[in-house]
Specification:
The complex is a heterodimer.
Chain A: E1 3-7, E2 11-12, E3 18-25, E4 34-41, E5 47-54, E6 59-61, E7 69-74, E8 79-84, E9 93-101, E10 106-110, E11 114-118
Parallel strand pairs in A: 2-11
Antiparallel strand pairs in A: 1-3, 3-8, 4-5, 4-9, 5-6, 7-8, 9-10, 9-11
Chain B: E1 9-12, E2 18-23, E3 35-40, E4 47-50, E5 64-69, E6 72-77, E7 86-93, E8 99-101, E9 105-109
Parallel strand pairs in B: 1-9
Antiparallel strand pairs in B: 2-6, 3-4, 3-7, 5-6, 7-8, 7-9
The chains are: A mainly beta, B mainly beta.
Chain lengths: 120, 110
């Protein structure tokens, strides 16, 4: 059974960089056929896809966030990470990581999410 | 890229069937058969219910079914049960190689 767990600071100051890590167990990030995603949910709102990375390092980002987002992968630790720069209160959200199945273009397994609040 | 359009809420009595629509464009829902549906209970991990328009992952009840016509996809829940309450989101992989989600639908079992 694949499990994903988000971790990182729950509070980030405005203008700083939000950094989160997703640790994967039960599957290897290096296995082809999957991509590794970040999604967020603003309080009381719907889901917003942030971006994904393939184990080879190829990335795709939401155009609306592309200038501030960086997703990286550490295959030795079976982890992938999100960095979102120049954050504002509008970036306060629950952040989820998820494993995507390339062949079906779907998000098959999800973490429980972690709340990140942007505030001074 | 705009969010896909879903009704804000849908309700039904136990045993009834309900359908949730998801309307997009020819660049997403209508572009290919990459529509998925997720069930989400706040505080928990979203759960994949349907992928590739009409396919159920292992372990998902056959009371859940999906379909698509043109730029609109639909999720039908048959034999509605109390445990089906929650938020439902559609998503589509677009022709530009990224995902877009629906606005979300709150399902209430009366």
């Amino acid at each position: 059974q694949v499990q994903l767990q988000e971790s990182g600071p729950g509070l980030v100051k405005p203008s700083q960089t939000l950094s989160l890590t997703c640790t994967v167990s039960g599957a290897s990030i290096s296995t082809g056929g999957y991509y590794w995603n970040w999604i967020r949910q603003h309080p009381g709102k719907g889901l917003e896809w942030i971006g994904y990375i393939y184990y080879s390092g190829s990335t795709y980002y939401n155009p609306s966030l592309k200038s501030r987002v960086n997703i990286s992968v550490d295959t030795s630790k079976n982890q992938f990470s999100l960095k979102l720069s120049s954050v504002t209160a509008a970036d306060t959200a629950v952040y989820f990581c998820a494993r995507g199945l390339v062949a079906a273009a779907t998000l098959y397994d999800w973490g429980q999410g972690t709340l990140v609040t942007v505030s001074s | 890229q705009s969010a896909l359009t879903q009704p804000a809420s849908v309700s039904g009595s136990p045993g009834q069937s309900i359908t949730i629509s998801c309307t997009g464009t020819s660049s997403d829902v209508g572009g290919d058969n990459y529509v998925s549906w997720y069930q989400h209970h706040p505080g928990k991990a979203p759960k994949l219910m349907i992928y590739a328009v009409s396919n159920r992952p292992s372990g998902v009840s056959n009371r859940f079914s999906g379909s698509k016509s043109g730029n609109t996809a639909s999720l039908t829940i048959s034999g509605l049960q109390a445990e089906d309450e929650g938020d439902y989101y559609c998503s589509s992989y677009t022709t530009h190689s990224f995902y877009v989600f629906g606005t979300g639908t709150k399902v209430t079992v009366l």
